[in-house]
Amino acid sequence: EKGGYEHFMLKEIFEQPKSVHDTMRGRLLVEEGIIKMAGIFDHLERFNNAGRIIIIACGTSWHAGLIGEYLIEEFARVNVEVEYASEFRYRNPIITEKDVVIAISQSGETADTMAALKLAKEKGAFIYGICNVVDSSIARITDAGSYTHAGPEIGVASTKAFTAQLTVLSLIALKLGKHNGALSNSEFMSLITELDLLPKKIEEALQSTHDITKEIAKDFVETQNFLYLGRGYNFPSALEGALKLKEISYIHAEGYPAAEMKHGPIALIDENMPIVIIAPKKGHYDKLVSNVQEIKARKGKVIAVVNKGDQQVSAMADYVIEIPETSECFSPIIAAIPLQLLAYYIAVYRGANVDQPRNLAKSVTVE
Ligand code: F6R
Fold this sequence. Notes:
Layout: H1 8-14, H2 16-24, E1 28-29, E2 34-35, H3 38-41, H4 44-49, E3 53-57, H5 59-76, E4 80-84, H6 85-90, E5 100-105, H7 111-122, E6 126-131, H8 137-141, E7 144-145, H9 160-180, H10 185-196, H11 198-218, E8 225-230, H12 234-249, E9 252-257, E10 274-279, H13 285-297, E11 301-307, H14 312-316, E12 319-323, H15 331-349
Parallel strand pairs: 3-4, 3-5, 5-6, 6-7, 8-9, 8-10, 10-11, 11-12
Antiparallel strand pairs: 1-2
Helix pairs in contact: 2-9, 2-11, 5-9, 5-12, 9-10, 11-15, 12-15
Bound molecules: fructose -6-phosphate.
Fructose -6-phosphate is lined by residues 58-61, 105-107, 110, 113, 156-158, 243, 247, 363-364.
C-alpha cells in the first residue's frame, strides 16, 4: 500500500503532481477561461459583501492560511486575517454577520478549529470549509466549502494536503478577484494558465531536487538547530519547512521572514548554523541576496532553494537546490517539494519514525 516507497510520507510527497492536478480538475478550465467552484459561486454575494475574511486553522493548515492571505489580498483585494484557531476562540474575538470565516483542515476533525467555527457561526458569520476528508465534522458544519482532493494522507506530517490547500486557496483568490473586478481578464488568464502548469512543474521539482536533498541531508544528521528564511509568499514556506523538520526529525528549527533576521536571529548565526533560504527569482530576490551576504559574513551554512540557472545566491550558497520558475504567488507550491524532501531524508538518516513521529497524532481531536 506504500506503492514501493519506504514510507507513506515519501509516497505522498511524490503524489503531489497528481493531488494538485486532482484538486484543480473540473474547476480550472483554462480554455474556457473560467474557474468553476460552486461553493464560491453560489455565495458570491456573501464574499463580495464581506468586510473581511478570517481564516482559522492549526499547524500546517495555518501556514496554508497565511499564504491564502497573500493570495486573497493580492488578487481579490479583500482584507484577510489569519488566526490560530486556539487563540481565536479564547480571546472573545470580534465577529460580525458580515464576516466570512474560512476554516482550513486536512482531517476536518481538529477540535480547536471546530470550536472556533462554531463560535463564528453563533455570531452569524458565514462559515466556509477547506477540508480534505469528505464528510468530516468541519465539512458538515460549514455553510459551504471546497474540498481539497489530495486523497487520503496517512503520514502524520502533512505534505500533499498542504499543496492541495494552496491550490484551492489560489483558485478561490482568482475566482473572487475575477468576479469582483479586482483582476483584469488578461491578468486572470495569465494566472490561470500558469496555475495549470503546476502539476508538471511539481513533477520537475521532484526530479530536480530528490537526489540533491538526499545528499544534503547526510551532512546534517547531527545538527541541532536550523533556521529557515523567506520573504513575501515564501515567508510561510519557511515556517512550514521548519515545522516539517521539527516534527519528523526532532531537530529544533525556526522559520522567519528574512528581513526579521537582523532583529534577533542573526545573533544565532555562526559556522554551525544551517540556514535554508527560499530565494526564487520572482519575489524580493535582491533583498534575499543581501540576506545571504549577511549570513555568509557570519559563516552560516546556506542551503539555498533557487530557480534553475540562478547565479547570485548560488555563488554564495554552500548547497544549492534548483526548482522550476513560476509566478511568485504559486512559488510556495513548488518550494514545498524540496523542503519536504530535506526534512524527510534528515529524519530517515536519524532513524526516526517518519510516518508516526513521537507525541503526534494525525488528527488532533482534543484541545
Ligand atoms: C503538520 C501537521 C499538523 C496539522 C494540524 C492541523 O504536519 O500535520 O500541524 O497540520 O494538526 O490539522 P488539520 O489540517 O487536520 O486540521
